[in-house]
Design brief:
Length: 409
């Protein structure tokens, strides 16, 4: 029985595997805009909870953590819906919900109301991200998929660089209602752009969409392989974000902020450069050294948090994580055929959220027993387990072959 193939594969077979198509640029723009809005809120909601709702540290944790829980739980569901019903429908649902959530933040004047709203935010955020990662995978030509994932991840770094700064500037100059309406404006802009994007499962993919409705994701073990490896290295990322500033200050470093500046710079550098390498030499050639560098960087922190050490860790972790992240995203798309690509990419996105959560919450629970060096040793061992798992298990999986076009591996 013949199988319909994505437009990107057909173009690649014809020698027209362009990356920067109009649709790819539009979807990448939506990705950057929604993440800018996300970081706009991440940087400012803790202040809103304390100053306007009278919340304490535990309340901040709930407000920031509840969306992550609902997002992790629902990302695979919405990914599967994007396979069954089309990417654009799920995307428009998610973005419409984000637009609605902006004014609702203005009305959430008590902590219980805000907590309920944040659960809703996690649901619609999951829908938007599930559709976007599937669209990006669909629109990435098979011969340039690693490069594409690298560029898209760079837009996330740009959003991280501008979102918090803009958010803090808004509340200093105006108020929180203006902030929430600014988020609404960003979400509305993303929604407007999405209205003119093209559905990647349209036309010749109709039969594939019908098959996706009638089946479960094929080769579930294969689909889960990349997310499990991603989870193992993202635990360390969560530990760095949550605990490195305190650890460095305890060790006498006056300005640990230099770590995040260097980390962002080397994440961008790695994502731009190594994506192409994974296309040319195969995902394995990038993933194995990348995870090894992540392990080494975390082992450094398990012994020292001097200024020299955190500079070295920022460079090493940025290169290792940036390289591995983009290559694993490409690998997840390689392993999934078009009928299960939405589910595969959503599991990967969920693993990132889960890894950051485990790095923050689980390691936070044991830091009082093992200290900061101990939690970074645990994070290094988790990444090492991912490295060993990749070496032992990767040969047992085969990338999907779309329309007879072998995916570079």
């Amino acid at each position: 029985m013949s199988r319909e193939v994505p437009q990107d594969v057909l173009m690649a077979k014809a020698g027209k595997g362009r990356l920067f198509t109009g649709n790819f640029v539009l979807v990448s723009s939506v990705w950057m805009i929604v993440f800018a809005g996300y970081y706009l809120l991440v940087a400012t909601l803790p202040m809103y909870v304390v100053k306007h709702l009278g919340g304490q540290a535990a309340s901040i944790g709930l407000v920031m953590g509840l969306p992550t829980i609902s997002t992790v739980l629902l990302l695979p569901f919405f990914g599967r819906q994007s396979d069954r019903r089309g990417r654009k429908l799920v995307l428009l649902f998610g973005l419409s919900g984000l637009v609605l959530s902006g004014p609702l933040h203005c009305l959430a004047t008590t902590l219980p109301l805000l907590l309920a709203l944040r659960v809703f935010f996690g649901v619609v955020w999951a829908a938007a991200i599930a559709a976007l990662v599937a669209l990006i995978a669909d629109l990435s030509p098979v011969q340039r998929r690693g490069e594409a994932m690298g560029y898209v991840n760079v837009t996330s770094n740009i959003a991280l660089a501008i979102g918090p700064a803009i958010g803090i500037a808004i509340i200093k100059a105006y108020d929180f209602n203006t902030l929430f309406l600014s988020f609404t404006a960003l979400a509305a802009l993303a929604l407007a752009i999405s209205l003119v994007t093209k559905e990647t499962l349209e036309g010749q993919h109709k039969k594939v969409r019908t098959a996706a409705r009638a089946s479960t994701p094929r080769h579930l073990r294969t689909i889960l392989f990349s997310p499990m490896i991603m989870l193992s290295i993202t635990i360390g990322y969560g530990a760095l974000l949550s605990f490195l500033p305190i650890y460095a200050l305890d060790q006498g470093v006056d300005n640990p902020g230099v770590f995040f500046t260097l980390l962002a710079a080397f994440l961008v550098l790695a994502r731009v450069s190594t994506g192409r390498l994974s296309d040319r030499f195969g995902r394995r050639a990038v993933i194995l050294p990348g995870i090894g560098i992540v392990v080494a960087s975390l082992l450094i922190l398990s012994t020292s948090a001097s200024l020299t050490a955190i500079v070295a860790v920022a460079i090493l972790f940025g290169v290792g994580f940036g390289s591995t992240h983009s290559a694993l995203m490409a690998l997840a798309a390689d392993y999934a055929d078009v009928a299960s690509r939405g589910a595969a990419m959503s599991f990967l996105a969920a693993s990132i959220e889960m890894g950051i959560g485990l790095g923050s919450i689980a390691l936070g629970l044991i830091v009082q027993f093992v200290g900061f060096p101990g939690i970074y040793l645990v994070a290094a061992l988790a990444a090492l387990a991912g490295l060993v798992g990749f070496v032992l298990l990767e040969q047992g999986f085969k990338p999907a072959v779309d329309g007879g076009e072998a995916i570079p591996y």
